[in-house]
UniProtKB/TrEMBL annotation:
<dbReference type="Pfam" id="PF02285">
    <property type="entry name" value="COX8"/>
</dbReference>
<protein>
    <recommendedName>
        <fullName>Cytochrome c oxidase subunit 8</fullName>
    </recommendedName>
</protein>
<feature type="transmembrane region" description="Helical">
    <location>
        <begin position="38"/>
        <end position="63"/>
    </location>
</feature>
<keyword id="KW-0999">Mitochondrion inner membrane</keyword>
<comment type="subunit">
    <text>Component of the cytochrome c oxidase (complex IV, CIV), a multisubunit enzyme composed of 14 subunits. The complex is composed of a catalytic core of 3 subunits MT-CO1, MT-CO2 and MT-CO3, encoded in the mitochondrial DNA, and 11 supernumerary subunits COX4I, COX5A, COX5B, COX6A, COX6B, COX6C, COX7A, COX7B, COX7C, COX8 and NDUFA4, which are encoded in the nuclear genome.</text>
</comment>
<comment type="similarity">
    <text>Belongs to the cytochrome c oxidase VIII family.</text>
</comment>
<comment type="function">
    <text>Component of the cytochrome c oxidase, the last enzyme in the mitochondrial electron transport chain which drives oxidative phosphorylation. The respiratory chain contains 3 multisubunit complexes succinate dehydrogenase (complex II, CII), ubiquinol-cytochrome c oxidoreductase (cytochrome b-c1 complex, complex III, CIII) and cytochrome c oxidase (complex IV, CIV), that cooperate to transfer electrons derived from NADH and succinate to molecular oxygen, creating an electrochemical gradient over the inner membrane that drives transmembrane transport and the ATP synthase.</text>
</comment>
<dbReference type="InterPro" id="IPR036548">
    <property type="entry name" value="Cyt_c_oxidase_su8_sf"/>
</dbReference>
<dbReference type="GO" id="GO:0005743">
    <property type="term" value="C:mitochondrial inner membrane"/>
</dbReference>
<dbReference type="InterPro" id="IPR003205">
    <property type="entry name" value="Cyt_c_oxidase_su8"/>
</dbReference>
<keyword id="KW-0812">Transmembrane</keyword>
<dbReference type="GO" id="GO:0045277">
    <property type="term" value="C:respiratory chain complex IV"/>
</dbReference>
<keyword id="KW-0809">Transit peptide</keyword>
<keyword id="KW-1133">Transmembrane helix</keyword>
<dbReference type="GO" id="GO:0006123">
    <property type="term" value="P:mitochondrial electron transport, cytochrome c to oxygen"/>
</dbReference>
<keyword id="KW-0472">Membrane</keyword>
<keyword id="KW-0496">Mitochondrion</keyword>
Length: 72
C-alpha cells in the first residue's frame, strides 16, 4: 500500500480540550516580537517621580540662576 494512502486513511486526531484548545485559537505571533509586560504600580510611581524631578530640577535651576544667565 502506498504511503500516501496509509496517511490519508488514518483517523483524524481527537479534538483538543482544556488550555491547549484556547491557546490554539489565538492568532500566531510574529517570530521576533516580545510579549508586552505589565508594569507594576511601584515601577510606574518611580518612573513618574524621576521624570517629574528631572524636569522640575532643570527648570528650578534655570529660574534660580536667571540673573547670572542674563549677565553673560
Amino acid at each position: 500500500m502506498p504511503i500516501l494512502a496509509c496517511l490519508c486513511s488514518a483517523p483524524p486526531p481527537p479534538p483538543l480540550r482544556g488550555p491547549a484548545q484556547s491557546a490554539s485559537r489565538q492568532p500566531p505571533c510574529s517570530v521576533g516580537a516580545p510579549r508586552p509586560q505589565l508594569v507594576s504600580f511601584a515601577e510606574m510611581a518611580v518612573g513618574c517621580v524621576v521624570i517629574f524631578a528631572t524636569c522640575l530640577t532643570t527648570a528650578a535651576y534655570v529660574l534660580s540662576n536667571l540673573n547670572q544667565f542674563r549677565k553673560r
